[in-house]
């Protein structure tokens, strides 16, 4: 019976509203391992998919989960109830490309005035 409490069923909600899972994970699973699972299960036809674990942010109960933490450490009172599926939101944020860096540098050089 304690094994059932050590297992969490998790669904990963992508930004377009589609899902990966649900899939069962042990409560000792790290957030980094969850992200690796997302990378391997990412739908092949979807654009702007993550390339590395660093491109993925997981949000559960309104909090961004840290890679080094386990599911047990991240569990919220509203998540992980026996028999329920926990939904975690997946945010993909790829690192900026060279072109993006130049445009952000240009934005920093702009002067903005606000008159109150």
Automatic annotation (TrEMBL):
Presence of the UniProt keyword Metal-binding in the record: no
Role of this protein: May serve as docking site to facilitate the association of other proteins to the plasma membrane.
Protein name, UniProt field: Membrane-anchored ubiquitin-fold protein
PANTHER family tied to this protein: MEMBRANE-ANCHORED UBIQUITIN-FOLD PROTEIN 2, UBIQUITIN-LIKE PROTEIN 3 HCG-1 PROTEIN
One Pfam family matching this protein: Rad60-SLD_2
Domain Ubiquitin-like stretches: 8-74
Membrane-spanning residues: none
Species of origin: Papaver atlanticum
Magnesium is among the record's keywords: no
A GO term from the CC aspect: plasma membrane
The organism's place on the tree of life at top rank: Eukaryota
UniProt lineage: Eukaryota, Viridiplantae, Streptophyta, Embryophyta, Tracheophyta
Subcellular localization: Cell membrane
Keywords (A to Z) from UniProt: Cell membrane, Lipoprotein, Membrane, Methylation, Prenylation
Gene3D superfamilies for the chain: Phosphatidylinositol 3-kinase Catalytic Subunit, Chain A, domain 1
Broad class of the protein's primary localization: membrane
